[in-house]
Structures are given as structure tokens and as C-alpha cells.
């Protein structure tokens, strides 16, 4: 079974792969802890310089379920570059790590009257110094924040030595350590086993929760004044199927993932307005659950709440009798499509979806036909149609009309694609 097939399996106990990103000497330490954890395995992705982080994520995004960074620096670089499309966590260097380093320095006879420390939170440094019996003004600190680079960290420690007569530099960056050790006494911090364990546990929980959410069933009951053959088109962006129950009622069947994305984390209902242009009464009750029965019960309750809201309303029902009234129209700052998750659902590479996203940025309203897609990417039109259908099933494309002018035979379908 290849990696793609393995990730498609939706068993609760399936193995998750964490891409461990960091300097070459720390990656094995963190990765070994991952491999010792049941149902987890590590993909080792070491770099020589922090600036290689983004390239590693882009190259290996299809091979992992989540990212585990050995420290805050590569994580911050990846987030700033918007390269993180999967669950991610970094190993935090706690006060315990610093305390252990101070203990070793003291045992070796180092003068700790004045030290310089980068990256760590100043408040935690101060607390740790107090625990070690050192005055709070012992340390000169530097908080890591982009666009700070390794050379800036080196410059900080050199300036601290020149200005404050620091005797020891403590750094979290391997690249800075390699330079500083030629200039002054320096210690490089490494995460403690507890810090590593905490990061692994947090990431495992986050990743499994995310996968569980994608697998949850979402159902919706729709009440209209009359039958509406265009309803499937308007609700198509939710990535599901619309079934007519009777003259005025419809059932929507989908999953939580597309519903969460389209509603911008359950805030707005952009599909309400186009339906309301044809109907004075539009009431939608949506429900999420671990089974179809649970989702239907929540949707039924939400529909009752929607009726109380007025003629045009959409309500989402969840566990513990929690109901969310969705605002009409699109929500500003809606959550962008997660290419990593979409690639996994489609069985496609993230690079292909990234190319498609770049192509669509030049299209008005992100509208495209199979013929236009085929011409742009040099593929057969039938291959482009299959791609659009796969995107539609995943909730990332919706058919919005046909192109009839100057066309013979069956008119091409126009899709609005959101990747």
C-alpha cells in the first residue's frame, strides 16, 4: 500500500506520518520519539540552513499528515511563507531546558554573572533564573521574530558581549551556534524529552481531530415555497448531494469539511442569498454528527430554530443542543482552501493544485470550462472534465452555468473553482 492509499484509509487507529523538520542534529532526536509512539511514524526532513524550510515543506507535503518542527524558528519561517497547509506544531524550549543548561555551565565552572540568550520568552527566562538562584538582570534576551535571521542572532550576542561584558551566549539556532563558537563561549539549547513529548501529543491530537472532523456527516433540511431545480447548483459548493423529499422540502447530504470551509468556520451562509432571490421563504437547518442519524437529529432541531428566525435563515445544529445562526452572505476573510487536505481527498499532488490555483487567479470570478483548462495545461479535454468533476465532488468546484454562444452540440459547463 503506497502512502497515498494509506492516508486515504479512514480508520481511527491508522498510522499518521509526521514530517520532522529542523537541523540535522535535532531531527533524529525528535523523530525517534515520534517513532516510539504507537500509530505514529516520522519522516525525517533535516536542513543545513533555516531558509531551506519552505522548500522542504513544498517538496514533501504529499508524504505526510502533519508537520513537527524541532523549534520555533523553522515553524515561524514556514508560517510567514504561508507554506503550512497541514496541522503543525513546534517543540517549545521550556524553562526546564534552560535550567539544565545553566546547571551544566555552573558545574563546568562558567561565570554566569552575565549571559545572553536568544529566542526564549523573556518572562520564562526571568522565572528560570530565579529558580536557579540568579538575579533577574543576569540575562540579556532577544525574542526571535521574523525577519530576524541567523546573522542577526549572531550580531545580538556579539553586541551583548561588547556592551554588557556577557561571559556566555546561549542560543537555540544551530547556524548561529556554528558561528559563535569560534568567537566566544556558547551553549546551544536542545529540547528536553518532555518538551518533545508534549509537542508530539499536541500534534497527534490536533491531526486526529482534524481527520475526524473531515469524516463527520453533515445533513441539511431545506424548506422552500415551491420546487426549485436550481437548488443543487446553489448548494453545490457544499460538495454534497441534494435530494427532493416533496414539493417544498429538500435533503442535503455532505460532510463537515466542505461545510466548514464554505461557511468560514460556521459563520456565514453565502448560499442563502442566491436562493432567496427566487424564494421569499428559505429556511435551512444543518446538522453535524458522527452518524447520519445524529446529524439528522441536529438538522431537524436547527430547522425549527431557523423557522423562528424569519423567512430567510440558516442555522447549524451540533452536539449538546448548540445552535449557530449563520449570517447571510459571504464572510470577510473566509478560510482559504487547504491544498494539502484537498490533495489527499482527490489523490492528486499539491503541486498540481498549486498550478491550478495560479491559473485561476487570472480568471474572472475563477470561472473555467474543461476546454479552457485543457488548453492551459496541455491535457486532453476529457481529462480536464474528470479533474473538474473530482473537484466538484470534493466541494472545491461548482457548476454555475453553460456556455452556449457559438457552440454546437452539448454546451460546455462553466465551473467556479475555489482552490
Automatic annotation (TrEMBL):
SUPFAM superfamilies xrefs: Winged helix' DNA-binding domain (SSF46785)
InterPro entries attached to this UniProt entry: WH_DNA-bd_sf
Name of this chain's protein: HTH domain-containing protein
